[in-house]
Design goal:
It comes from Bacillus carboniphilus. The protein has 355 residues and is α+β, with helices and mostly antiparallel strands. It has 13 helices and 10 strands. The protein starts with a helix and ends with a helix.
Length: 355
Amino acid sequence: MSLEKFLNQVVSSWMSEEGPHSSFVLSSRIRLARNLKNHVFPIILSNEEAKSLVQELEQKILQSNKAPLPLELLRMDNLQPLQKRVLVEKHLISPNLAEDSAHGACLLSENEEVSIMINEEDHIRIQCLFPGLQLQQSLQLANTLDNWLEEKLDYAFDEEKGYLTSCPTNVGTGLRASVMMHLPGLVLTQQMNRLIPAISQLGLVVRGIYGEGSEALGNIFQISNQITLGKSEEDIVEDLTTVVTQLIEQERSSREALANQSGIQLEDRIFRSYGTLTHSRIIESKEAAKCLSDLRLGIDMGYIKDVSRNILNELMIITQPGFLQQYAGGPLRPHERDVKRAALIRERLKLESKG
């Protein structure tokens, strides 16, 4: 399969499209956790109960002719491990659903902006993913889907506590809002370590590219809310947007300072990374992430022309192990993945230059 055809099949809209403040914000995500009344939570569901719940939801949801948008059901037990890994790498399902839920499922929209996980930590997790800083738009779509589902399903809801969830930290709105940000300026000027504790004091949390427990590869950070109880959905989104807007301004100032104080060193770093990506025959994931971050910074600051800004979004995802093996057509050993990763990056950059 050609790389161009492969990309057309696997690249989600949040990877290939630009949104507001896309020089700093790669994507915005809203996730709503919901459970069904008179059903035990998924963490203690038996296999038969879990399987029955998927069938019940399929009947109530997919047979409706009034869905806000077309959705396709993917059952986890019908997918190969590699297929599930790719869905995780695209941020469409969680590692927990891929690894631990034999009778889990996912309802997926064609453009992959919407993913509704079934039998993850909660019975239902509605996710809407948009490019750039579009939390309000994501929330609007998530609420539309939530209202549509609530017409068919009896949610577990308490007048005082709000929506009931498996994890106490999600009780209330059940809302997790997050943005994925590229912050190389704050990292290179050594401000990020100081900012993370300050952000945490505001009721937000900073994580790596794949959420809790993951590393901030390529200077990519996820900023999300920790508090779901005692605040409205609108307040949560507004508070997060305010902090993200401040981070954007600080990142912009850091980039300007780098250009003014160490312009030639910064330019050298960027073009060395560009050269590594263009010519390497073997490259490990951490080195690739670092070089891709430098390349994206060079594009955003105008050092590198004629390369799409979305190159980071695409290559940070499609150079992950699952994607590499899908593109290769089968399993790869670690060294083989490093060789294939280098080849894929070279080919992608060559395809960019032809465009």
